[in-house]
Design a protein that fits this description.
The complex is a heterodimer of chains A (about 300) and B (about 170). The longest helix of chain A is centred in the first third of the chain and has 14 residues. By secondary structure, chain A is mostly helical. A 3-stranded antiparallel sheet of chain A has the order 1-2-3, with no helix packed on it. Chain B has a single domain, classed as Cytochrome c/b562 (Four Helix Bundle (Hemerythrin (Met), subunit A)), CATH 1.20.120.10. Chain B is about 65% helix and about 0% strand. Classes of the chains: A mainly alpha (about 300), B mainly alpha (about 170). At the A-B interface, strand 3, helix 7, helix 10 and helix 11 of A face helix 1, helix 2 and helix 6 of B.
């Protein structure tokens, strides 16, 4: 597979490529990359937190209906991590879901969302990850049920469920809404858990963000569309911002499980970005899903 | 995904495989995990679950009251101190309300307690203790009456005290 769609590459991109080619990522780029790293919460899956694993060294098990995946080492270690990756390799992984060796990644790596990232964000993220300490830790083989472990399955999956290309802002909406859409759909990849999956694990986009009782690790993931009875229709924008900032729900409780991890990332966003996420979520079509109710606000 | 749709997928892919004629990999067996129970049950399992749910509801109400003070100006800093003290006292009781055999997999009653609690009970206890420490810090902050200090201490307690434990040990159930 070859890399396509570089037609829109801006001069800024060329400059960034030049900078990383000479090994000098400037501080501003690292700061931007760190922000993206938090928004995308890369560390949550690529660190085996429960067994006190090193940051981004991988090995975290992710149980899915298809078997257990073990996340890979994405530290800049050249032998066991991604230290030898070029900018194009990194972009190919996020934009196309393809490894430098031309294998399709299993979609447990949320490239269906990351494909929507801008070139600039992808390169900033790479620069930041490459500024972190390398860790030598070999990847653990996935433990996947037949026949999903087989690469043809992934190719097949992609034909059905994957469309490649960066987020296109909707001119019918303002900048805040578009920023919220980009955060929700691309960086924070909310739909990877909050959108139910159908046949062969593809996202049911018509039911986007309406929650599922069959989320990661068999957990319920609540409906975050603005449905009054089963979603977050009763929540104020403030309620949404609060849960993203501190993890506190409208009933006083604090989120746990997967969302607790997500809050580690969203708590580091700016207030403006959290507010943009709220604007976008509140604009979604309300969908009733009694199987995965959100906490009610009073 | 239910088992029926999985079967359909397997069947569909098998057909696709046959028609393309590619080999297939199989993978190994899952490792079994071991659990260690390190605690003596004082309450019956059902009572422990009921008690701790009451306690957590109380903590949620206290946290909501503190948040209302910060966001809407409801109540006083003194009230915040009292709420923080109640969470601090509750935190000390948490470990005893989680006797072995009361996880969500034990089917005693509806509970969100993951079995990982008992596989890592020392960590669980440390997290309960940490909640107590952070609640005590919030109580002190409330004593100063400084809203920013209260907000910071509350954020710290909520995110790291409550949330830190829920992230690892609480399942989303309702």
């Amino acid at each position: 597979m070859t890399i396509r769609r570089y037609g829109a590459a801006a001069p800024a991109l060329a400059l960034t490529l030049l900078l990383s080619a000479t090994g000098r990522a400037d501080q501003a780029q690292l700061d931007r990359g760190a922000y993206i790293f938090n928004a995308a919460d890369c560390g949550a899956c690529h660190t085996n937190v429960k067994e006190k694993g090193r940051l981004l060294a991988g090995g975290r098990p992710l149980k899915t209906p298809f078997g257990t995946f073990y996340t890979p080492n994405i530290t800049p270690d050249p032998e066991t991590g991604i230290g030898r990756w070029s900018d194009d390799d990194f972009k190919l992984a996020l934009r196309c879901g393809v490894s430098p060796g031309n294998d399709h990644y299993f979609p447990v790596f949320p490239y269906g969302s990351f494909t929507k990232m801008t070139d600039q964000d992808i390169l900033d993220l790479k620069a930041y990850i490459f500024s972190l300490p390398p860790v030598s830790q070999a990847n653990r083989e996935h433990d996947i049920d037949f026949p999903f472990g087989w690469r043809f399955s992934v190719w097949f999956w992609k034909q059905l469920n994957f469309s490649e290309g960066p987020f296109a802002p909707d001119p019918a909406h303002d900048g805040t809404w578009n920023r919220g859409a980009y955060l929700v759909e691309a960086l924070a990849h909310c739909g990877e858990c909050h959108t139910p999956r159908g046949w062969f694990g593809g996202l049911e986009t018509a039911l986007a963000m309406s929650g599922t009782k069959d989320g990661p690790d068999g957990q319920k993931v609540p409906n975050i569309t603005p449905d009054k009875d089963t979603g977050i229709g009763g929540w104020s924008a403030k309620d949404i911002v609060r849960v993203l900032k501190s993890g506190q729900l409208p009933d006083g409780d604090f989120v746990g499980s997967g969302m607790g991890e997500v809050v580690n990332g969203t708590s580091k966003l700016t207030d403006a970005d959290r507010a943009a996420i709220a604007v976008y979520l509140q604009s979604l079509p309300p969908i009733a899903n009694p199987e995965a109710k959100a906490v009610k606000a009073e | 995904m239910n088992s029926r749709s999985r079967m359909m997928i397997v069947a569909g892919l098998a057909v696709a495989a046959a028609s393309v004629g590619i080999g297939v990999n199989a993978y190994g067996v899952r490792a079994a995990s071991t659990e260690t129970a390190v605690q003596v049950a004082a309450l019956s399992p059902a009572d422990a679950i009921a008690e701790r749910q009451k306690l957590m509801k109380g903590n949620g109400a206290a946290a909501k009251a503190i948040n209302d003070f910060l966001e809407s100006g409801t109540g006083t800093a003194d009230d915040v101190a009292k709420s923080a003290a109640s969470i601090k006292d509750a935190a000390a009781k948490i470990p005893d309300l989680f006797p072995p055999g009361t996880s969500m997999d034990d089917n005693i009653a509806k509970t969100a307690a993951k079995k990982e609690i008992w596989a890592n009970f020392d960590d669980f206890k440390a997290k309960a203790q940490n909640l107590g420490t952070l609640a005590a810090a919030l109580e002190v902050a409330a004593g100063t009456g400084d809203k920013q200090k209260i907000a910071d201490a509350f954020g710290d307690m909520g995110k790291n005290g409550c949330g830190g434990c829920h992230t690892l040990y609480k399942q989303k159930t309702n």
